[in-house]
Amino acid sequence: MILIGLGASLPFCGRSPQENIARAANALHRLGEVTDRSRLYVSPAWPDPTDPAFVNAVIALRTGLGPEPLLAALNAIEAAFGRRRTKKYGPRTLDLDLLDYDGLIRTGEEGEGALILPHPGIAMREFVLRPLSDVEPEWRHPLTGESAESLLAKVEKPEVIPIDAGWEAPAA
Asked: What are phi and psi of 148, to 5 degrees?
């Protein structure tokens, strides 16, 4: 199973972060089959809670793309949504993270900028683990074997709250 994390905290082209997530879900359909998606969650910005709050979700994807081409496609979608990488962990119009690619382990030893799998922050972030648990409740971290539920019990809880409103992807 391929898991993609989605996040947004800034509007883009007059659309709210929630709308950006829904439209990004539409764009992911062009890369393969979206087999499941989490509820939407809102959480304080991290590491600076004075930044705008984030809307987060996780999508399960089935695709013929390998990890690197998939990551390149995710980066292209981010760019189409106005993503500018100016401040690490700063506010953004869209963030798409390749969280897990069928349990593949990549340590990044291939050199600078190499893809690391699973995503290195996955085990420490409630805003990733909570929606990931919606999509794949039996998921286990490929390196540690720990369940999402076990990892959730260890993380500091910054008040990740589900959004009641649905998030049907709007027509393109």
From this structure: -60, -40
Tens digit of each residue's pLDDT (9 = 90 or more) over 24-75: 999 999 999 999 999 999 999 988 889 999 999 999 999 999 999 999 999 9
- Cα distances (angstroms) measured from residue 149 to each of 45, 51, 125, 126, 160: 22, 28, 12, 10, 15
CA distances from residue 97 to 14, 70, 128, 153, 161 in whole angstroms, order as listed: 23, 10, 10, 22, 20
Report the DSSP beta bridge partners of residue 4. 59, 98
- Other C-beta atoms lying within 10 Å of the C-beta of residue 107: 11
Task: State the Cα–Cα distance between residues 139 and 145, nearest whole angstrom.
Answer: 9
Dihedral over alpha carbons 119, 126, 76, 166 (to 10 degrees): 140
CB 121 within 8 A of CB 56: no
3-state class (DSSP) for residue 54: strand
Whole-number Å distance between alpha carbons of 6 and 25: 9
Residues 6 or more apart whose Cβ sits within 8 Å of residue 65: 31, 32, 73
What is the residue whose two structure tokens read 């929606």?
131
Give the CA count within 13 Å in the CB-facing half-sphere of 104: 16
0.70 exceeded by the pTM? yes
